[in-house]
Amino acid sequence: MSVERLVRDMDEYRIAASLTLSTIGIFHNYAAGNAATLQTAKANNRMVPMATVNPKDYFGSATDIQAIRKQGFRVFKFFPAEQGWTIDSAAFGEVLKQLATLKVPVMINTAHAGEPSSAGGIASSYPAPVVLCSVSPATLSEAVAVMAELPNVMIETHELHVPGALEMVASRIGADRIVFGSGAPRCSIAASLQYVFSSELSDEDKQRVLGGNIKRILEAA
Prior knowledge:
Elements (H helix, E strand, L loop, with lengths): L2 H10 L5 E3 L2 H5 L2 H14 L3 E5 L10 H9 L4 E4 L1 H4 L6 H11 L5 E4 L5 H9 L6 E4 L6 H10 L3 E4 L8 H8 L5 E2 L9 H9 L5 H18 L1
Parallel strand pairs: 1-2, 2-3, 3-4, 4-5, 5-6, 6-7
């Protein structure tokens, strides 16, 4: 998705701010992607920049992670399936060990069976929020079990499009542990928003999901 299109969509759907990153960082070179993300965010203060690191290509030190953080990134997001590595890999563990010293919130794509559990394994000792992204109905029970055990684990919404899922998570775990995700550009922003709007959550809980929870995480980062 181009920056211009993203801004237009944000205007159309009255989105105040968006966590964003460059797909260059996912599929090609994370350093170049982080630079592109930061450049975009500096040009538009509605874009909140997310950093990413590919553990398969990372041979740096804690100093290198600290340098990325100091550029203005307050969240790191990781893409194991897209990049061909596993959440329990030693290389990813090393990256997380370095991030843990900075207490940086992390988001991890956990679309496949077993991945929420693997993320729970690393979240148990991680000193900041860990957001499980791309959780679908097929992995929801696994994600909820992890969240019930670990209070720093949260869930993102864009793949949950089945009736009652949000309500179930809110009742069992709490609406303060759910963050909205659009899934853009692969998913429709309108559909992702409508899923929350049409849920039976209270207005207060919808406000938490649609912005309050992620705002709280970012302000603490």
